[in-house]
Amino acid sequence: ASLLLPAVVIGDTTVREIRLDVKPDGDGWLVDQATVLLPGRTTLEAKGRLRLKDNRGFIGDLLVASNQPSGLATWLTGSVDPEIRKLKTAGFSARVNLADELQRFENLEIAIGGASLLGRMERESRADAVPALSLQLQGNEVRLESLQALVGLVAGDASLSSIASNAIALDLKADRLVAFGETASGVNAVLSSRNGALTLD
Q1: 6 contacts: CB under 8 Å, gap ≥ 6
Q2: Which DSSP state fits 152?
């Protein structure tokens, strides 16, 4: 099936410039190409395998590039954190495995403003446990806003309170780290946070 549509209205949201090339594959679909323009002047491109029945999910390559991250955050969550409002651009590409309870991003490349980061991320959110977020990142500059924007795209909430509610494991290497108005250089740190306690390994 090949679909090329100028716009589709979903609820009160208009999604534009939709291009889908898919093939049936057992209980799912092989996505040869999927591109769509989302709110916040955000381009999404995907290629892989989509399951829509039991254990729904997507495995494949994903690219998201937003020229108005605050608009994307507003669409996803209904509100936007002030830190996200400061960002002019945000985007990432990765090999992903996305399901209801687990979201995994391998070969992750993040570009936010002048910051460029490489690494991986995994978030697990089961009904009977505290959400767990694991990040391994390295790059020229890491800003707190970058981590917020990334978590917001995955979890649907980019606020600091949302990040703090996760059990976090972070392996970070950065030429510069900017957070809470302070800057540190030559950062190489492994840390974890759970139930309000921060552990430096």
Answers
A1: 16, 17, 18
A2: H
